[in-house]
Structures are given as C-alpha cells and as structure tokens.
C-alpha cells in the first residue's frame, strides 16, 4: 500500500488549465484560485467527470440504484 496521498484533478475552463492537487488540499486550492483569478466566483472545480463517478459510487454504496 502506498503512503502517498492521492491527487485530485482541478480544472478551470476560463483559464483553460488543469492541475492535480493532493486530496487534503483541494478546498484550499480551489479557494485560492477562484479568489485570486475570478474574484471569488466558483469557476475552477474538481474535474466534473470525477465528481460524476464519485456520485455514482456513493449512490451504489448506499443502495440508491437498487429496485425495491
């Protein structure tokens, strides 16, 4: 098992940039970028594809896809 912290892709469509940051730094990195580049507007975000995949995994884990 690796002791290295996983990284999360952060994208900003306005700046046309993508970077990866350690999971524990995601909130701070987004705030810093959006405050510094976009006057606080939430433009940069976690990669939408990753957000969708995580939402599916959580829903599956909670049994939300199961039919009654």
UniProtKB/TrEMBL annotation:
<feature type="domain" description="DUF8149">
    <location>
        <begin position="2"/>
        <end position="67"/>
    </location>
</feature>
<protein>
    <recommendedName>
        <fullName>DUF8149 domain-containing protein</fullName>
    </recommendedName>
</protein>
<dbReference type="Pfam" id="PF26476">
    <property type="entry name" value="DUF8149"/>
</dbReference>
<dbReference type="InterPro" id="IPR058462">
    <property type="entry name" value="DUF8149"/>
</dbReference>
């Amino acid at each position: 098992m690796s002791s290295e912290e996983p990284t999360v892709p952060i994208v900003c469509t306005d700046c046309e940039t993508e970077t990866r940051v350690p999971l524990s730094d995601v909130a701070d990195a987004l705030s810093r970028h959006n405050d510094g580049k976009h006057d606080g507007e939430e433009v940069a975000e976690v990669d939408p594809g990753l957000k969708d995949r995580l939402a599916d995994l959580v829903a599956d884990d909670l049994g939300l896809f199961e039919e009654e």
